[in-house]
User: Which sequence fits this backbone?
């Protein structure tokens, strides 16, 4: 299945990759027509009462991938800074890809990790993330240097979350021969403009999880305040479906 996942990065349109945090969110996105899903480290951490970015969600991520593996969809796991053991574990659970982030640690060490993962699990799609633009002022020169190092180390794709300026995105795309992944930024990006810049994969990151939390609060307030509740919610029957089952007329 990993070969099919890699091919999704090289078709005419970019791969739009929603990021999920549980089986219900994944199932509804599959039925909405998405061919591949990733996990969101923030979502997985938050639903388990854990902090994101602290390397404590490994077991929860493996457990989630194992539950999602029955779905007819390609799965890629966010294993944060990761390890060879973590990559092997999610691959054995059913993932065909991983995100490996450098957290702005030494680039040679991250490149060495990428080589080790590819040596141990050659068919796993390694999306190498650099945090040059994540929650910090961006450094394009360093971003280009890091993505080149990671591509040379065997990464199947590179990911620069937080990259927003069209010229910067185009520079990263031009720097490597592997697919470039960009984190979708509302009001900054559209799928069309990112496609025109050569981006091959567009991730939602924690966006869907945070949107779901906002919808929960907004709906509860609407009930309390007497405002209208969105009428096109999934029905009880659509949600109450066991593994491998599908409710009649199940269109989320």
Assistant:
């Amino acid at each position: 299945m990993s070969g099919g996942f890699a091919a999704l990065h090289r078709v005419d349109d970019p791969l739009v990759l929603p990021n999920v945090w549980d089986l219900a969110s994944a199932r509804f996105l599959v039925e909405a027509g998405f061919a591949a899903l990733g996990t969101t480290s923030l979502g997985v951490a938050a639903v388990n009462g854990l902090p994101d970015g602290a390397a404590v969600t490994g077991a929860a991520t493996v457990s989630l991938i194992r539950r999602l593996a029955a779905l007819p969809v390609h799965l890629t796991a966010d294993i944060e800074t990761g390890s060879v053991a973590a990559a092997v574990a999610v691959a054995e659970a059913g993932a065909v890809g991983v995100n490996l982030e450098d957290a702005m640690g030494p680039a040679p060490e991250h490149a060495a990790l990428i080589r080790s993962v590819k040596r141990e699990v050659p068919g796993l799609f390694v999306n190498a993330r650099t945090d040059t633009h994540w929650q910090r002022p961006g450094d394009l020169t360093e971003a280009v240097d890091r993505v080149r190092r990671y591509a040379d180390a065997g990464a199947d794709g590179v990911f620069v979350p937080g990259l927003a300026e069209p010229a910067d995105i185009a520079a990263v795309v031009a720097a490597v021969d592997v697919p470039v992944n960009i984190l979708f930024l509302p009001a900054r990006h559209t799928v069309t403009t990112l496609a025109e810049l050569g981006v091959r994969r567009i991730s939602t990151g924690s966006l869907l999880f945070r949107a779901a939390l906002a919808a929960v609060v907004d709906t509860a307030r609407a009930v309390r305040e007497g405002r209208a509740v969105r009428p096109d919610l999934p029905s009880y029957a659509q949600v109450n479906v066991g593994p491998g089952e599908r409710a009649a007329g199940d269109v989320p």
Q: What stands out?
A: The chain is about 45% helix and 15% strand. The two ends are 26 Å apart (CA to CA). The longest helix spans residues 207-225. Confidence is low (pLDDT under 50) at residues 247-252.
